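Worked Example 4.2. Consider the chain below.
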Amino acid sequence: MNLKTLQIFIFDLDGVIYLGNELIPGAKEVLKILTNQKKQIFFLTNNATQTRAKFSEKLRKLGIPARSDQIITSAYITAEVLRKSYPNTNVYIIGEEGLITEFQGAGFQIVEAEDLENPIDLVVVGLDRNVTYKKLARASSAILRGAKFIATNTDPCLPTEEGLLPGAGCMVAALSTAVGSDPEIIIGKPNPFMIEYILEQQQMPPALAVIIGDRYSTDILAGKKADIKTILVKTGTGLRELQKIPSSGPKPDLILDSIADLLNYLK
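Applying the procedure from the previous section yields the following C-alpha cells:
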C-alpha cells in the first residue's frame, strides 16, 4: 500500500494513539510527519464519555496538537444523525458528559431519570461508568412504551493502561436483555457514519483515505463499509482482534505491530 498518495489519515484513539493516559511510542513522530506532509488528520473514537474539546485537551497534554474539529466521537455523530431525523425531541441518556453535552448542543431536551412527567422519544445509550439500576429501569420503561432505542456503539471493552475495562456494549446488552430487542440504530463503528461524515466534510473520495485502528470488529469493518483503506495495529486490543479476521472475507489492507511502524511507509 502506497500511503504517500493518501490525503486523509483517520486514527482511532484508545489503543492506537494512547492507552489510558499513556502515549503509545511512535504516535507523536508519525503525526508530526503527516502534518509536515500536509495530510488531513482526524481522530475517530467510539468513546462517547467526553466532549471533543476534552479529547483535544488530552491529546495536547500528551504532546499532540489537535483541534476539536479534528476529533469525531460517536457522541457527536449520534447527535448529528438524530438531529436531522428527530429534531427538538425529548431524549433520555445513559451516558456521561460527552454524550449529554453533544445532545444539548444539538437542541435536544434531556429528560432526567427523576422526570416522570415529560415523555421520552429517544433512549440513547453510551458508556456510563455511573450506571445504576434506576437508570436502566427508566430507559427500559421508556423503550417498552415506544421510545426508540439508539446506541452510540457496542464496544464490549475499553483499552486502558490498566488493561481492558467494560465498554458501552455492556450497558447496551443489559438494556437489550431487559426490553427483549437490540438497538434500532448503532451509530459508532463498525457502521461507517463517522467516516462518511469526514469524507463529506472534506469532499474527498474514499480512495484517498485510510483508517488505522486496533479493532478488526469496529475500525477495520467500518473502513471496509466506507470503502477506504484499512490498517490494523496490534496495540490495544489488536492482538486479540487478529483472531476475529475471517479466513474468507474482508481483511485489513495492512497489519502492523504499532503506529510506530507507519514511519517505514511515510519517509
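The two ends are 14 Å apart (CA to CA). The chain has ten helices and 15 strands. Compare this with Example 4.1 before moving on.
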